[in-house]
Amino acid sequence: MKSILPVLTVISAILLFWVVCVPPMNMHLVADQAQRDDLVVTPDTPAARQEFSGAGLALRNAHLIPLTYTFVRPRLPSPHQVAGEMYRTIIGQKITSKRSLVYHGWVTLAPTLLGFLIGTSLGILLAVGIVYSRVMDKSVMPWAIVSQTIPILALAPMIIVVLGSMGIQGLFPKSIIAAYLSFFPVVVGMVKGLRSPDAMQLDLLRTYNASKSQGFWALRLPASAPYLFASLKIGISASLVGTIVAELPTGAKAGFGARMLVGDQYGQPLVSWAALFAAALTAAALVGLFSVIERITLKRMGMAAT
Amino acid sequence: MIILYAIAIWAAGWWLNVKLAKGAQSDHPIVKILIPAIFGITVILVWELLVRGFDVNPVILPAPSSIGARLLVEGPRLWADFHQTIIKGAMTGYVIGGIAAFGVAVLADRSDFLTRGILPVGGFMAALPIVGTAPIFVKWLGSDWESKAAVVAVMVFFPILVNTVAGLKDTSAMQRDLMRTYGAGYWPTLFKLRLPAAMPFIFNGLKIATTLALIGAIVAEFFGSPTVGMGFRISTSFGQLALDMVWAEIVVAALAGSAFYGAMTLIEKRMTFWHPSQR
């Protein structure tokens, strides 16, 4: 609770930095527009204005600075413009409308969740295999670790296209990427978690003459819960990033990624920025959701970290 | 027939690994490398045989041998792409982002108030889809490597920032008291105690950032690039249905990613040799 004030301070510092950046970034465009609207601009030719930096031009034309905050097609929109656009597209539209960000959000969220579910389940299964089979541990685990250093996300759009050419379309191709991205963090985290009981705890179970499966359900699985939640939080945000990147350059018609690209290509920067922030909010909500589940579960299991 | 070979090879590889893993020598360093290597070779052989056996269309999945051929034939072009994307784009951005994050962390560290604000906000920002800003940066800075470096710098900034700030806090009251009894001021304490203590954390952030840097540089090229670069080559080779070239770039990206990560791990080992996790 006591960190609310510092957090708000940091956020307002970032916002302030953003607001300060708006006039220099947009000044050239605004000055051109102002000249067309017969306002006084110094210097008065576009060529002469190119000689100045954005900040220099803003200082010379202080009377134009308010205009930079309300410019229609800004290079850098101001915070209130983005907020307004988000309000219009999230609350102001029917959620079935193609202009509603809620609709696009669902298009992105559905494959993310499906893929996350697949990736997490497979990841847990592989982790159990690795913990109980020495051969799998020795042969698969090094590759699971190496695969984390490979920029596989860069291939997401290509995987979509290949699957599309094989006739697989819709939800599934994006889910595969989301599944892949959440898979390895879960494997690595769960292997760590399932191995976290120390020798004394394992010995205790042996003195109870517990079977292997009893040891798994009563000791290893519960002990891995904190590790599982840490991996789930990494996995869900990786899945969301994967789905968005998969939508970006593949000509997808709906979804956050598609909105970002449409705004970029048709000169509607506000659309891109609104999609970007909506995606950020979605990621935050998903990670936050898992944090809450984590806190409740660990508390009920008596493992809460104070 | 070929499929039977594939099954036989898979069984043989697995049998060999079972023997090695259960054998007396299984903790020997060479065997530790040998087992995953055998697994990898088995997968590649089975892949090759299955692609040939089922006559898989190379547009869907090329055989490893044709990818290998591409790697050999297209060496100069792959090198040019590597230079453009990794050296110019990813490395520049990585260094800029790293230095900026480090600077901000050291400055913020002077105030406990700021630290408490930066940790949650930075952790939150690190989980966001920052790659999505790539089209915006390409628009601002043009399609050459500068825009890629900017995307990479923003992507690596937050993980390194959060880890550095957390690391600088990781000294015990007793250690700080000891420095005070020596009469050490802020700077000596920073350089002799707190920075060394923060090293394991900083390297953790740097290692997370290596993969992010490559992803950022490659993905940003999908939105505009000169006619060279790994992202450019991946997307154009796709247009030409030259999937073996795409896979060759993937191999290069994978090697670059592992090498980058490996290099960071090596530097970490040299610099934090005193830390329990390295001994």
UniProtKB/TrEMBL annotation, chain A:
- Which residue intervals define the domain ABC transmembrane type-1 in the entry? 101-294
| Superkingdom of origin organism | Bacteria
Transmembrane intervals = 106-131, 143-165, 171-191, 227-250, 270-293
Q: Which UniProt keywords apply?
A: Cell membrane, Membrane, Transmembrane, Transmembrane helix, Transport
Gene3D superfamilies in UniProt: MetI-like
Q: What cellular-component terms does GO give this entry?
A: plasma membrane
Location of this chain's protein in the cell: Cell membrane
Membrane topology is: Multi-pass membrane protein
Q: Name one GO biological process term.
A: transmembrane transport
Q: Which family does it belong to?
A: Belongs to the binding-protein-dependent transport system permease family.
The name this protein carries in UniProt is NitT/TauT family transport system permease protein
From TrEMBL, chain B:
Q: Name one GO biological process term.
A: transmembrane transport
The answer to whether the entry has keyword Transport is: yes
Q: What keywords appear on the UniProt entry?
A: Cell membrane, Membrane, Transmembrane, Transmembrane helix, Transport
All residue ranges annotated as the ABC transmembrane type-1 domain in the record: 94-272
**Chief localization:** membrane
* Membrane topology summary: Multi-pass membrane protein
Spell out the GO cellular component terms annotated for this protein, sorted alphabetically and separated by semicolons: plasma membrane
Q: Which domain of life is it from?
A: Bacteria
TM regions (residue ranges): 33-51, 85-106, 118-137, 149-168, 201-225, 245-267
Pfam families referenced in this protein's UniProt entry, alphabetically? BPD_transp_1 (PF00528)
Keyword presence, Transcription:
no
Could you tell me where this protein is found in the cell?
A: Cell membrane
Q: What is the protein name stated in its UniProt record?
A: NitT/TauT family transport system permease protein
Q: Which organism is it from?
A: Yoonia ponticola
